[in-house]
């Protein structure tokens, strides 16, 4: 039993390192293996061997997320595996004062990425969901957590990375770790501090994902931002689309770094779309943020930016608008 536990821990550590640091070469190798297995199963079924037929899971209706009323920081991941786009957040669809549109939540299937996701998710569940005393501790040490329902990785509220703040050097070094993403820095003044909301989307090694970060600093400091303290957290949410197809959701919850990463999922940055909702402390903070966002909107070409505002809540669509979505 001890040998088995050590083996499981070693496998989990290896997978964690791969998730965090490797490039796409291993992903392509794994893709070829999984695709080959899928082709073999298909060939056997066509030959009449019914014992190898794959029975897909029934789709689960996504639960409706609500921004209003959330007051406590939460590190919980969404509780339902979502194969359909969830209902949008009330308050950002109606009575919008900017770039108004009508709400029409559509259901879309996940994109076909060429990788059979079920066996991969089974392995992840085995490592990080059914063995919390071993593998999950290794993942937590790396600053991440695993959402069993959606099969994604995310950062909890208090990872070790929170101690180091942010500066632009982090993004400059990202390609060394196999990360290729688009990012926008929305800087604004509020409450005698310099604030920044930064958003990312793209390929992170063998995962595709997105991030929303909230930072601030004293005006006397240069370059380095501090991660937002608990009293400065704002409510965040985003839906992640790839090539117009819904993939997963994060939030709504109060956070300073809301993230989500899907392993063995391939996405070119400009084909990824983030549908975000940010609920700021008050209208003054939302106004300051929006003034800076408008400047970014003027420079967006491959990654168009749209927004709506309802009081202190701002909904942002970054990327191509998925078919069937009214914004």
Please state the CA-atom Rg, rounded to the nearest Å: 20 Å
Secondary structure tally: strands: 12
Strand content: 25-35%
Silhouette: globular
What is the straight-line distance between the termini? 55 Å
Number of helices: 6
What's the overall average pLDDT, rounded? 75
Helical fraction: 25-40%
Task: Pick out the low-confidence regions.
Answer: 17-83, 89-115
Order of helices and strands: HHHHEEHEEEEEEEEHEE
The main β sheet shows up as: 5 strands, antiparallel
Computed structural class = alpha+beta
Write up this protein.
- This protein has helices at residues 2-21, 25-46, 117-129, 135-141, 168-173, 283-298, and strands at residues 145-147, 152-154, 179-190, 193-204, 207-217, 226-227, 234-242, 245-255, 257-263, 272-279, 305-310, 313-318.
- The chain has 327 residues and is of the alpha+beta class.
- The strands form three sheets. Strands 3, 4, 5, 6 and 9 form a five-stranded antiparallel β-sheet that branches. Strands 8-7-10-12-11 form a five-stranded antiparallel β-sheet, with helices on one face.
- Strand 3 and strand 4 (193-204) form a beta hairpin.
Question: What structural keywords apply?
Answer:
12 strands, globular, 327 residues, alpha+beta, five-stranded antiparallel sheet, single chain
Secondary structure blueprint with pairings:
Blueprint lengths: L1 H20 L3 H22 L70 H13 L5 H7 L3 E3 L4 E3 L13 H6 L5 E12 L2 E12 L2 E11 L8 E2 L6 E9 L2 E11 L1 E7 L8 E8 L3 H16 L6 E6 L2 E6 L9
Antiparallel strand pairs: 1-2, 3-4, 4-5, 5-6, 5-9, 7-8, 7-10, 10-12, 11-12
